Amino acid sequence: MSTKPISSPWLAGYAWVLLALLLIPLIALVPISFGDSATMSALPDKLSLRWYREVLGGQEWRNAFSWSLLTTSVATLLATSVGYLAAYAIVHSRTRFKAILEILMLMPMMVPTVIVAFSTYILATWMPANATWLMIAIGQALLALPVATLIMAASLRGIDPTILRAAVSLGGQRAQVFRMVTLPIAMHGILSAAALSFLIAFDELLIAVFLTKPGLETLPVRIYDSVTYELTPAIAVVSVFLMGLISLAMIAGALIRRFVAAAASNPASR
Amino acid sequence: MTMTSEAATRVSNSASVHLEAISKSIGGTRILAGVDLDVNAGEFVTLLGPSGSGKTSTLMAIAGFVTPDSGRITVRGRDVTVLPPGRERDMGIVFQNYALFPHMTVAENVAYPLKVRRLPRREIETRVADVLKLVQLDALADRKPARLSGGQQQRVALARALVFEPSVLLMDEPMGALDVRLKEELQLELRRLQKEIGATVIYVTHDQNEAMLMSDRVALMRDGQIEQYGPGQELYRHPRSLFAARFLGDSNLLKGMVRDGWLDVGGLRIALPTGTLAATGERQAALLRPETLTVREGATGALMSEDGACLYGTVRDAAFVGQAMRYEIDVPGLPEPLLVHQVACAAHAQLAIGMPAQITWDRDDIHLIALGDQDE
Amino acid sequence: MSSASAIPAGLRARRSVADLQWLSVAVILLFLGATFLAPLFEVLALSLTDADGTFSLAQFRELADSSSLRPVLLQTTITALEVTLACIVIGYPAAIYLSRLEGWKASLTSVAILFPFLTSSLVRTFVFIVLLGRNGVLNNALVWLGVPGAPFKLLFNQTGVVIGMTYVLLPYMLLSLIGTMRKIDGTLLDAARSMGASRARVFWTVYLPLSLPGVAAGAIITTILGFGYFVTPALMGGPGEKMIAQMVEQRIVTLYDLPGAAAISVVMLTIVLMAYAAAARWLGLSRLMRPQG
Ligand SMILES: Nc1ncnc2c1ncn2[C@@H]1O[C@H](COP(=O)(O)OP(=O)(O)OP(=O)(O)O)[C@@H](O)[C@H]1O
Ligand SMILES: [Mg+2]
Q1: Whole-angstrom Cα distance, residue A222 to residue C232?
Q2: Among all residues of chain A, which has the CA nearest to that of C246?
Q3: Which residue of B has its CA nearest to C2?
Q4: What is the pLDDT of residues C120-168, one digit of tens each?
Q5: How high is the ipTM of this complex?
Q6: Minimal-distance CA residue to ligand 1 atom 10
Q7: Which CB contacts under 8 angstroms, 24+ apart, belong to B122-127?
Q8: Is domain A68-218 given the CATH code 1.10.3720.10 in the classification?
Q9: CATH 1.10.3720.10 for domain C66-288
Q10: Any idea where the domains of chain A sit in the sequence?
Q11: Do B84 and C1 touch (CB under 8 A)?
Q12: For atom 1 of ligand 1, which residue has the closest CA?
């Protein structure tokens, strides 16, 4: 440390304070969610589970959560599978076509979200009304697609081509090479892509706002309406719930990574 | 099936390989320019050559990863030139970096070629166990490649390439990443193994000692062509070109012109080997391997002996290199000093720098190389 | 000849590898074409039609004439730039330190950045509404401290939007900065020091230039995301149309003026594409596409 020209205790202190400031607001939601009154306070006078009962028992929140789960699951599936094909094509093709494909895949990320949402809205107007939920899922998939593609492309690029050559030369047919070699090695990237796609899709607001109708409301729309019109600790409860999910996902990710690392280095992995 | 007869059964499977005028250009550059190669069943052939000479490209053409622009590759008489790599091509490959599957254990790696062929589980287990015993890795069957040493990884790669009893085994510098001691050990082990199972092996290296030690025949490559092909000893003793002479071992090359049964090297007369039929006026180079020369203290001022198998000079450099003394001797009339390797033993007197020296040899140890127009 | 059977088999296998690539490309094109490109063209078409559905530039003429678009565009651009600047100023010094951490401190850093990064932007905006309100934690603390003028109006105005968006977008900037700074070779700094450069000089002449690509990539992301941002301005902004994304949303949801929304979208798209083109010229396209890598 002593030789590093760019360093000072002030910098370190500042950096840790900044990280704390990033996290503290979110942590502050936890006590708020345990409040008892309709107004929100970071230090509630009386702790209660009132708003948890309200949210978990409320049909509206439960419906919103179910819709979100449905659209987001479909979106994740779409984004991950189409993204995998795109990543495969981008990594393995050698033509000029590749650059066009790359730009095309990234477009939904480069174009402002409102416009993606608008075009999904247009798409939905072409479709029957009972397919609206599917259109929401497709729009969410579009938003997740670029990130999913980038992650999986990086992961596919990381596979040593001689390993694939070895797999072929040893007699593996294409499907076998994919199942026994490519997929397990790329699995980490695929799971990451799926997880991130899920979060991006789950967080999507505008598409759902444009396409929402009575009986079809995703969780973000519900939160949005609630923040606009009600602003009760119920939102804090939902937030805490969502953050819990993310914590679980991050812990699972870390565990998987550790497990993979351990399995790769453990003499007796069975 | 019995376990012990496993190794013996592999002999029958090994195949001959023939390359006819294989050419390949990539992006306008000619990387293979008509490669011809015959490999007999059960033979160990090494492709030797400097970096960029086309060794890997030739091997990958045999493996099917490079499709030749022209030419023909046959295995056991069957044309496989455009056959894609894989099951039908039936070749075991050991890649330079081993290309072990990082997510599989040693046993799983070795079982892979059998699993993709959908062999019964029982048979897979016995054959994997057998081959792991053969390469002495049975104790490490459950490890992942990341936890193996370089030599162990190399043996896993070998076991994986052997286990499905391919007709040909291809290896691209499999010892490239190993330290010297381990390398020597594995070279001998591989050689023994190859003889034991009778596999056809085509091996790539740029290490001439390795090529000599292991191969039945060596193909010396240069600029996408095979410069010379034959047993290692023949390449060493009777190189057909200056390139071959220089590439294999240390060499003294005395270039001159044949005149009346002698080789005239800048006024020095060198006796030709007995029975040589070289006409006056031919340009030839005499190859004198450093270890065929004998050096002793010479008389000052002596220039030339009558028999043409002796030169006089001054010791320019003397160094002890382990089993031998390495001398550089300046000889008046020669553009470069002569290199002499002389076994360090009581029979040979050691010379110091600056001392006058006499160098002698047996005229039949000389090998003549005809000089072409482009050889200066 | 024995090759008779081998050649067709070989060619067949080789062709089918290419087939698979084309198949995947076809699937991608079909998916993107049907779900994204076609509707996007429809948006373009909508912007060029009038109420009767015939071609006209009426929408754009109206936008140019009306007093509504220009101030919003200006406001949006200023907000995006303010947020970007805030992210750089706040993030850069911290990233210098954080990029050099190893072990558990580095893990803690990535958790502390990734957790807010992954948390719903709605949640992150919501928490700021709670914290910045007139009776929120921040104002209460300021009043308690006796700060003159407190409580301040931090919500439902421009200040609130900039604060909230900075909080929401800061993780992008930090990730980009740390990613680039991690790759700066520490020995370069030592080398510069050994040649007699002062600490400040090493920073200005070596560290800053080497970290600039990360700043640029982060700035592009935050500016462009900020330009099109909806959630935070919609929830934290003052009454009326403040940001351009809200204008589009309002035309679709409230006014049902699709051609109008389309015209504004086209304007937005043009500005964003121009920004990308400028950035690509400046940084190179490939760098632009892999901000973190
Ligand atoms: N894909 C390629 N595109 C263009 N040139 C290539 C390609 N592969 C090989 N070459 C060229 O072909 C020549 C032969 O390459 P090759 O890899 O066969 O050499 P090598 O004898 O194996 O060398 P080394 O000992 O360094 O491995 C080299 O000049 C190389 O630059
Ligand atoms: Mg090579």
Answers
A1: 16
A2: A114
A3: B78
A4: 888 988 888 888 887 777 888 888 888 888 788 888 888 888 999 999 9
A5: 0.85
A6: B31
A7: B123/B1, B126/B1, B126/B3, B127/B6, B127/B163
A8: yes
A9: yes
A10: 68-218
A11: no
A12: B26
